Amino acid sequence: MSQKNTTSRETEKSKTSQESVGKSLLTALTQQEVALVLDALLASLPPTSLETAFHQLPNDTQQTVQKILNPSPSREIKAETPTSLAKLEQTWSNLWKKWNNIVAEASDEEGKYIEQEHHWEPPYFNNDALVEDLEALAKQMSSLLSTAYEHKFSPKVDFAKILEEMADEITNALPEWIQSVDEGFYLENCLTTCLLQWQWLKTQDEGLNAFDFIQKIREWDERTKQIGLDSDAFLDFFIQLSDADLQNIYEGLTAHREASFWKTYLENARSKWYELYLYCLEKYAPERRLETLRATINQQWTNGLPVIEDLLAKEAYQESLSVIKKTLESLLKSNHQERSWSAESSLFATISGEFYHGEPSGDKVTLLRYYQQTAQGLGQSELVQALQLQLTACENRFNWSVMLAAFKEVKVSEITRQNLFQSWRNYILRTTERRFGEWGERKADSFSWWLPWLLDSIADSPQETKEFQRLIEQWLTDFEKNEKPLRQDFSALRLLTHDLAEIREETWHRYPNFQTVILHPESLKTPDAQSRQSFLEQLAPKNLWNKVMTYWQNHLDLWIPQPETAHKSDYTQQANWLLALRELSPTIYKNLLAQWRIKHKQRRNLWKALEQMGLS
Q1: How far apart are CA 249 and CA 209, in angstroms?
Q2: What digits encode the pLDDT tens for the residues 553-604?
Q3: How far apart are CA 472 and CA 478, in angstroms?
């Protein structure tokens, strides 16, 4: 046997032995222990021996180890930990194993993604939980994606195909009686980005251009209607493409915009393809972008704003007015308002749904400002002033002082002033009433209470208090005569009591349960509370607080929930109310308790609940 063959076999034997030892170490020791072994060996071997050993490793492994052993001296930039391609491929493979496990779990009718709220209700498929788990994997995959594609990591994947197969597999595997399974899968940010990035790399590899790419995505989108992409991630992906690629997309979409394959989507203001086309138009054809926006105002009212802004810049006021009317019509329709609106007849804030939940959106205020500029340009002074009131109401509708000053100072006709004041007055009433739960019984114009009287009094003059005082005292007197007023009377009295207590800075140390159980202050918070209380303090009779508390002391027992109304023998509510009654009226409390002992002596859970609170 030749010396050469002998040496070759010894080298191969040595490699096999080393491989066996390495695998044995990984099997027998923890990762921490293997790290300790490597640290000890590297510390004891001379540099020449290390260099000899490294030459036996694959090039990528050599480079990775060298980077770890000889890190960059630069301290300014924190470099990522070097990782070999083999390690990256292993990570990639493990992520896809987890993906497959998740899809298998989602295809199991007894898996964790099948939920059931109550035993009598049918189970349903939790699409959101599935997508969240896949999104977490996609977040990890995104940093590996380009490397995995370039180096052809195993497993070979195609994101578009895998997502399509996932949807089909889950839908076909689960029985029809499981609800929500066919509602579709709406991908989140990382899933959408991974899909687009992978398909973009594939398109470039095939020598195709950017428009070819969106054609393929559009075809996939059409084919897989049960999968929705994240619109923000979709647009963000295209924004980061090169100018040449974006121009190619713009030219392709422009050339094919009338083709049936594209037309419907490019004319749909809620389509992600429409948003992409608008972005391209903004870069390469701003005038055509305005035309596209104008044509879709009826679909999305905010599309009118850039168009109006452009017309105002050109001083095309009559045309601007036409677009404003179209924009307002679209806005009202989007808020399910069938009636028309004019600035002289009612406050804009009272008919726009969002205004009930917070400050008016900037877009709505902008529209009103554009409307005012247009009216100014057309010389319509009454409309200009009416819109000034509208703008004041948007920003200060819960500040009574500011609104009253505006109604007096802004120069509009008396009929416009009255229209807008009544609109504001009714808005304040509605928003206040909607804070409470007992207004359902009220019929139109059949219920009178103290807040509308207060608003009417301050509209004339804060000094004219006599009528308000007469009305509110009569209201309390009527309460005394009523054995059981309506529930909305109860809410109105609660609000009055709370407001008077706030004015007095009442601490409630004598009646803590009355405050928390009966008044329940958190439920009485309204945006205009400070204004309302300020005017109530000015106009209310001086002895109103005493009269209100006297009513509660004499009649709180009328409002206590009866034991027979308890749900599933839970008498906690009744017990809490009795605590409040004992604070206010010990004698009435004792009498009521004596009545209950006779009438409800069989309700053992009632007496247990009262005993636990020290009431029996």
Answers
A1: 9
A2: 999 998 999 999 998 889 999 999 999 999 999 999 999 999 999 999 989 9
A3: 10
User: What is the pairing mode between strands 185-186 and 124-125?
Assistant: unpaired
Q: Are 471 and 450 in contact (CB under 8 A)?
A: yes
Name which of 273, 221, 230, 225 is nearest 249 in CA terms. Answer: 273
Let me know: does 124 contact 116? Beta carbons within 8 Å. yes
pLDDT of residue 76: 46
**Token pair of 479 as six digits:** 């309460």
H helix or E strand, kind and range, residue 115: strand 114-115
Give me the amino acid identity at 302.
T
> Which of 473, 447, 445 lies closest to 539, judged by CA?
473
Would you tell me how many other CB atoms lie within 10 Å of the CB of residue 290?
18
Nearest to 344 by CA among 422, 244, 266, 398: 422
State how far the Cα of 606 lies from the Cα of 307, in Å rounded to an integer. 67
Q: At what angle do helices 47-54 and 59-69 cross, to 10 degrees?
A: 150
**Radius of gyration of the chain from Cα atoms?**
37
Question: What is the three-class DSSP state of 76?
Answer: coil
Average pLDDT over residues 397-401: 94
Residue type, 31: Q
DSSP string, 233-271: HHHHHHHTS-HHHHHHHHHHHHHHTTSHHHHHHHT-TT-
Q: What is d(CA 377, CA 379) in angstroms, rounded to the nearest whole number?
A: 6
Write out pLDDT tens, residues 39-48. Answer: 666 666 676 6
Report the SS3 class of residue 351.
coil
Phi, psi angles (nearest 5°) of residue 287? -65, -40
Query: Is 213:253 a contact under the CB 8 Å cutoff?
Result: no
Closest C-alpha among 93, 193, 210, 185 to residue 138 = 193
Instruction: Name which of 320, 368, 369 is nearest 347 in CA terms.
Output: 368
Q: What is the pLDDT of residue 19?
A: 56
Which among 180, 155, 160 is positioned nearest to 170, based on CA atoms? 180
CA angle 285, 289, 295 (to 5 degrees): 145
Query: Which 3 state secondary structure label does DSSP give 307?
Result: helix
Q: DSSP letters along 433-455, please?
A: HTTSS--TTPPTT----HHHHHH
CA 42/CA 7 separation, integer angstroms: 27
Buried b (16+ CB within 10 A) or exposed e, 136-152: ebbeebeebbeebbeee
Across 67-81, 327-341, 484-498, least confident range: 67-81
- Shortest CA distance to 461 belongs to which of 386, 530, 399, 407? 407
DSSP assignment, residue 303? Answer: G
d(CA 412, CA 385): 6
Query: Is the distance from CB of 499 to CB of 540 less than 8 angstroms?
Result: no
